Every structure is written in structure tokens, then in C-alpha cells.
Amino acid sequence: MDEEQIVSDNTSSPLYKPAGFISKRVVDSAYFLKTSPRYKRTKNFFYDLLENNNYVYKRYFDLMMMVLIFSSVVILIREVRYASHDFLAFFNDYIISFVFLIEYLFRFWVISDSSAIIIRQYEQDELLQRRFRVGHALLKVSVAKWNYVRSPAAIIDLLAIMPFFHELRLLRLFVLFRVFKIFRYTKNMQYFGYILSHKKFELLTLLTFASVVVFVSSVLIYVMEAKNPDSAINTLFDAFYWSIVTISTVGYGDVAPVTQEGRMVAILVIISGIAVISFATSIVVTAFTEKLDDIRENKMFTDIKHLDHFYLICGYSIVAKQTASKLRRSGRDVVVLDTDYGRIKEAKENQLYGLMLDPASLSTYQSMGIDFEKQVIAVILLRESDILNVYTALTLRAMDQKTKVLSLLHEKKNRRKLHLSGVNHIVYSQELIGLLSKEYSGRPMAFETLSMLRAEDSGTAMEEIVVDERIAANFSSVGELHVRRHRLLLIGVSKLQVENFLFNPAHETPVEVGDIMIVVGEHSMINEFRLFIHKRLR
Fold it and tell me: What is the three-class DSSP state of 90?
């Protein structure tokens, strides 16, 4: 019986168990860790703390690590002239090193999912009807870990935690490698490295050219100057040092050629040095110019995540401009999403948070990393068509079911579609115009009043005041508010408990938590009324 027949007979069951005690234990352990909620929570916590820039506590961890880094360097500098205090030496050599060691081990742990690699290999072998190759799976795990260990950041971490660097004075200089760890904890440094990485080929080419110039000039100047007794260039190291100083255009003057031939070499190196610095500057400036929009967008993402409450407007049309302008004047933050570059540019010019992203895409809100429940007051859909608003509403409901969504209706036949997509409130401008025209035809003063309320440069406004626990404790009825004494007009009260709106409520109408009062008047009077109802105590 051949080997394929044996494998076929052994894999006749639906779940082929791996042969051997070790293989079975490896797979069982991988599945246990993958399905353990406690293990997943713990690993996700440390991953967020070390790698997730959106995690709220990561900045405090980064700040603590930066304090340790600078403390270590300060202690090293102090030891040059003063005897190190026993506690400072112990703190620098052991405590800080131990903290960095723990951080390194945690990064080594969370950087890859070993359980997932083993399970993936096991399921692949099951699918192909072959014996589980535990060695192959562990090799993949080792490769994933090795890719982290050999990364520049991990090498710096390892050099910074060398356990015996304090035994020899020369090795104490490895403390300076801790300074490079700052790249991990500062976003600006990460952006700088990210930008330069996109010009890796150009920088490598320039470095190759500079290295060739340094090598050739070092050999030439050594040949020209070494035999001259008056020359300061007596060794190949002197020639190398002179070449580096000259090509960098520093020119200390401590080592200089004295022969005619040596000075000719110096001229060529100086010209080459100017060219190298010019090209290097050009490459860096070009890299920053190309990635400037990305840097600004990342900065805006960070600013939006730090907002406490804001309105999210999808689509920056004419109506959206007026809506955003009124919200901004009332002190509200507004975030605008649109796919048109010109509109987003105009939104930014109007002091709004503008992102050129598709409001109907799920990845848009995932990349923003916002908390709809805590941050978003309401989402206002003002895109060019009802279909786009429907798609956006469906995407929003996939992210959050409770966020209040308002939408502009372009065509009356699409009202039901917007309702089914999860829109809470729909505004159909044609219906409003028709009702106003019917109600106020032949009544010019009524039209004038509405126009005044709508005008942006008017001092009159219509505001919503939500009754909180403090207002409800201060006032028991509408009559106690003394609205007219503040030269305001109370249009009505929206009662939360009975879901009813009372126009021109009576004085004895009770004031309850959650009610919304609609008042009309000048901005200054409304602000004074807000202070009155919040500051007064029974």
C-alpha cells in the first residue's frame, strides 16, 4: 500500500486529527488561545497600548517612555563629571533597562498572531488531505517573529536594553540608542521617516555617489600628500577624515592639502559636496511637498478624534454651506465629507473640518475612528441626489443604529426609500415652499419676518433650548421662565414624555427634563436668557 493510500485512509473522518502528541498539543493550544476571550482582551490591550495611535491611553504610555529615555541620557551626561549616585546608577542600569526589556518582550508577543498562523496551516493541511506539518507551522511563526526582530526599530530596542552595558564604560554609550526610541513615541518623527521612505531610491543613489567621491578623493589626497613632510595628511584615516569634512562643506581647516595636486583634488571635492547637499535638499523638499496633503489629512484625523461633539455633514452643496455656517455661528463644530476636491477646499477655507472621503463608504468612518455615540450630535445628508443619501444612510446605520440622521429630499417619490434606509427626519424643500406660499400669500409682513429669521447678517435667531435637570429644578412651569421679560418669543415646547409639540404654551404648562423650548429673539437676549435659567436657584 503506497503512502497516498495510507493518508487517504487516515483522513476519512471529517476532522483529521494531527498524528503525534506534540502536534495535537500545538493545535489544541492554538485553538484555545484563539477562542479565549480573556487572552484576546489582554493581547488587544497591549497591542493598542504599544501600536494603536488611536488608543486613548497610548499617549500617556508614550510620554512615560520619553521621560525614561531623557532621564537615562541625563544620568549618563551627569556621570561624565560627577560621581553617579548609587540610586541613579541602579535606576539607569537596571530599572529603566528592565522597563525597556518588558516593552520589547510585549512588542515581540503582539506583533504577530502565532495562533492564527498555526491554525491556518492546520486547516490548510486538512483541506489538502495531508498530515499536519507542525514543524512547517512553527517555522512560519519563527519567520514572522524574525521579521520583527531584524527590523530597524527592534534592533534599536535591543541595543537599548543590553543587560551588561554598564559593566564596561565604552558600552555605556549604548544608552544613546535609547534616544532613537523617540521615533516610536512621537508622530512627527514617524511622519518624517514615512516621508523619507518614499524617496529611498533617490537617497540611496545620492549616498552611493557621495561614497564613491569620498573613497576616490581619500585615495587621491593620500597619494598626493602623504609623501610631503609639511602635509597634515599622513595616514589613510587622515585622508578619509579630510574628505568627509570637505564634501560636507564644513571645512574645519585643521587638515588641508599643501601640494598643487592636492588642492586640485580639494576643488573637485568641494564642487561635488555642493552638488550632494543641493540634491539632498531637493529630494527632502520634494518628498515633503508630495506628502504635504497626507500630513495635513492625518493631522485633521487627529483633531477630529479629539472633538467632544460635532455635526457630520455629508455633501457640501449650497444648502450645506448655509447649514454649516449657522452651526458654526452657534459655536458647534462641523465635519464635512465630500468627494469633490474643490468643495472640500472651500469647506476648509470656511474654517470647517473637511475630508475628501466618500460618505457612503464604510472604510471612511473606520479610518476616521470616531465614536458616533459619544461624539456625533447628528448626521446631515445633503448630497446631490436621493440615491447617494440612501447609500450614505445605509452605511451609517451599519456603523451605528442610534445616531440621529437628517436628510434633504430631492424627489418626493424617494421619501419611503430614505425612511427605510434609517433616516430619522426628512426635509422636502418643495413642500415647505408650497406650504409657506399657501399660508402667507398676500401677507407680506409674515414673509418679511421669515426672511429676517433666515438672513445670516440679522441679529435675530431661532434657537432650541433643551431643559436639563438644573433648569427643571429651578422652574416648574413656563410662566416662571419670564420669557417676555427677556424680550423673547416662545414659539412652543416639544414635550419629550408625550411626544407632542405645544404651540404658544400656557403659563401653567409644566417644565420637565428633556423638553425642548423654541425661542425667537436677538442673539444677545437669547444668551442672557440661557444664563438666567441656568444660574437661578430655588
Answer: helix
Query: What pLDDT is stored for residue 14 in this prediction?
Result: 44
Closest CA to 406 of 283, 510, 319: 319
**What pLDDT does 433 receive?**
46
How far from the centroid of its chain's Cα atoms is residue 260's Cα? 59
The residue among 439, 441, 423, 421 whose CA lies nearest residue 431 is: 439
pLDDT confidence of residue 312: 92
Q: Of 383, 384, 389, 457, whose CA–CA distance to 424 is shortest? A: 389
Q: Using CA atoms, how far apart are residues 501 and 356, in angstroms rounded to an integer?
A: 39
Helix, strand, or coil here: 403? Answer: coil
What per-residue string of b and e applies to 418-452 under the rule 16 or more CB within 10 Å gives b?
beebbbeebebeeeeeeeeeeeeeeeeeeeeeeee
Q: How far is CA 346 from CA 352, 355, 356, in A?
A: 9, 11, 11
Whole-angstrom distance, CA of residue 177 vs CA of residue 160: 5
Residues 6+ apart with CB under 8 A from 209: 276
What are the 10-residue block averages of pLDDT along the chain, 538 residues in total?
Answer: 42 47 82 87 89 80 86 78 74 83 90 87 78 84 90 81 54 63 68 76 89 90 84 87 88 83 88 89 83 76 84 88 82 89 88 89 85 87 89 89 87 87 79 47 53 56 80 86 85 76 85 85 82 71
d(C-alpha 449, C-alpha 469), whole Å = 33
CB atoms within 10 A of CB 59: 12
Closest CA to 27 of 111, 133, 127, 146: 133
- Residue 408 · residue 389 · CB < 8 Å: yes
Cα–Cα distances (Å) from 329 to 24, 52, 120, 229, 312, in that order, read 66, 35, 55, 81, 16
- CA 249 to CA 262: how far, in whole Å? 17
Question: Beta strands 310-314 and 376-381: pairing type?
Answer: parallel
Q: What is the pLDDT of residue 287?
A: 81
Look up the pTM and report it: 0.52
User: What strands, in cross-sheet order, belong to the sheet with 500-503?
Assistant: 460-466, 516-522, 489-495, 500-503
